[in-house]
Amino acid sequence: MELNGWKTHRHSVMEFQNGVNVLVGLMGAGKSSVMDAISFALFGTFPALEHKRVRIADIPTSRPSAVDGAEVKLTFDIGGDEYTVTRSVQKGRPSAAKLEKNGKYLQTQPERVTEEIESVLKINYDTFSRAVYAEQNRLDYFLELDKKSRKREIDEMLGLNHFATVEDNTTSLINSIRSLVKEDEQVLAQMSLQELRGKAEALEKELAKVKGEEDRLKTDIAGLSAKFSEAKTSLDELKRLNARRTELSKSVEGLRGKAEALKASIAEVDAKKLDEEQLRKEHESATALDKQLEREISEAKKEEQTALKALTSAETAIRHEEKRQHEKEALLKDVHGKDVRELSGTLEAEKKELQKLIEELASAGSRKEELTEWVKELSKHLSKCPVCERELDDELRSKLLKDKESLVRGLGDEIVEKSKVAEQKRRFIAELEKQTAALQLSLGKLKDYDGVEKALDEYRSIAAKKRKELESASRELAAKSVEGEKVKNTLRELRSKKEELARRKNFADELSRTNAELDRQETEIRAIKADDKQLEAAQNAFAEQSARLSAAREKLESDKRYIESVESQLRERKKELDNASALDRRIARNRERVTNLNRFKEAIISTEGALRERLVYSINELMLDLWPRLYPYGDYAAVALKAYDDDYTLEADVGTAGSSSWAQVNSVASGGERSIACLALRIAMAMVIVPNLRWLILDEPTHNIDSTGISKLIDVFGSTLPGIVEQIFIITHDDSLKQIGGARVFSLDRDKSANGPTVIV
């Protein structure tokens, strides 16, 4: 077995031998956790985990530093095959497992791994924990239980609990079936099979009778349906003929009215005595005159348009020349009293004066700049004149400075005044230049208007002439238009008369067709041989057949409903009869079941008793052989397991030589004696119950046993038990057990003060 991160085992590897394996060490060294690991590897649990004294999360090593998971790997041989099972736990994740057989994967799901191992070992965890694995200081576990619990647990260990379960379930099933039989008998007592059969037979006879009546009605209905169809066909034909006669009568009346109207229209045209040939000639003559007038009117319109166009052109030219005349008059008014040469002379004189002012301003400006430089020099407190270099005292310098400053101010005022005058001159010159240019432009334009009065007179003369021509053309066009309209009116009257003659012909043709259709429809009316009496007789015959057919159908529907009612009653009676018969058969079957279950229950009880007796006998046979080897004294000749109806007891033979007297171990034995007796019982149970797995795990088996008893145990473990048990695992802190002959000893130690891991020596 290999342990990684398992409780205090950081990494431990142990190879156990056949025979005795002793794990020895102080408390907390990690001995019991090795056996827990064996149980966990095989079945995924161990007693402390099963009873929730520890949790999965408590398994991984936590001191001095924690690990995330733990793993146990166990290899064992059975039936000539080698199996390796590996299980691991990880914090926050489900447990994992895998099982290998002879180096090949067999299962990888934890539940399937456990099932496979249970199948191979032929043992489950419950049996393993009771018969094979004795937890620390719990050899006398069975003696500490109350009677009921001890009976239950030993029965479970021996596999007899299944018999008790089957017996209880069988009893419950027998009671349930008996209850059903009683209920069915009560229901059946309220039913009469003979009465139910009589009612069913009566209903079958009634059903046959009504179905015969139904068949007869169906035959009658078939005949009535044929007569009904004949009557309906005859009635429909008479109705059709009657409707056709009514339709034709209305049509004849309409045709007669139409013929009269056509005759009146023809007479109205004939009254006008129109001559078709005369109308044709007059129409041809009027048509020719109309075409001639249309040509003359077209020519007159062209002449009118030509005259209108010439007049329009002349009037446009007149308006243009009149506009030019007005423009000329405006220009003459604008230049009246103005002389270009006088304006030009004034302009030149003003320009000369402006130039003179500009020169004077330039001279004054130069003089001012020069005087300004003088003022600057004199302001520097010079001792000499800056011009003539004569000596200057302060008074003279001050006087000169004031004079020069006065001249500078005077020149400044002069420059400002002359600048204003110069600016006025410039504006005046610009205005004179503008007036001169405008006058010259106007004088130039006047030349363009020469001869405007003559042209205006000529255009007015042309317009007067063209206006007369237009008036003449318009009069001619109007006369032609009046004459043309008269001709067109004549043409319209002639066309109307011709159309009347054409309509008269159409009326005559339509009258001929109407008279022919009138004769045909009157002949058809005379051929129809259907009168109101015949129609009334047909309607009465149809109504009679319809009533007889409806009555027959209603009777048939009534019979069908009655048949359905009888059939429903018959089904109900048959159902009740079937239910009663089924109930009778079920009662018989259930009674037979109760008989068989009682036999089965008796067999279960008998088998359970025989099996218990045989198992107890086998256990006691082994204990009879083991006891003298385990117990070093002679005060108890033997120990045995006694089976009673409500309990199992472990008893010792306290009789004197030659006689037996049995007493419960609890009442006569010391703690050490009890432990040895329980050890003998556990070994015997393990060998009888689990013959396929000849293992025995003992945790602190020397508890409450004195030194003499321990010596005897050492001898038994070394010489006797290996011949009975294939592998024995002993967990102990008692160093004396290291003396067991042939045992493989694993010494487990750890530095608890430093929270160190388990070390195996």
What would you say this structure looks like, in words?
With 761 residues, the protein is an alpha/beta fold. Among the domains are: 2-158 and 631-730 and 742-760, 3-Layer(aba) Sandwich (Rossmann fold); 295-453, Helix Hairpins, CATH 1.10.287.510. The chain is 69% helix and 11% strand. The chain contains 15 helices and 15 strands. The chain has helices spanning 31-43, 47-50, 110-121, 125-132, 147-158, 161-189, 193-270, 276-335, 340-378, 394-448, 452-527, 532-630, 665-668, 671-689, 707-720, and strands at 2-6, 9-13, 19-24, 69-78, 81-90, 93-101, 104-107, 133-134, 639-643, 648-653, 662-664, 695-699, 727-732, 744-749, 759-760. The strands form three sheets. Strands 2-1-4-5-6-7 form a six-stranded antiparallel sheet, with helices on one face. Strand 4 (69-78) and strand 5 form a beta hairpin. It is flat. The chain starts with a strand and ends with a strand. The mean pLDDT is 84.
Give a short overview:
The chain is an alpha/beta fold.
Provide the residue-averaged pLDDT.
84
Q: What is the top-level CATH class of the domain at 2-158 and 631-730 and 742-760?
A: Alpha Beta
- Amount of beta strand: 5-15%
What's the helical proportion of residues? 55-70%
CATH topology (level 3) name of the domain at 2-158 and 631-730 and 742-760: Rossmann fold
Number of distinct beta strands: 15
Write down the Rg: 76 Å
Our measurement of the CA-to-CA distance between the termini, rounded to an integer number of angstroms, reads 15 Å
Poorly predicted regions: none
Helix and strand run: EEEHHEEEEHHEHHHHHHHHEEEHHEHEEE
Lateral strand order in the biggest sheet: 2-1-4-5-6-7
Characterize the overall form.
flat
Number of helices: 15
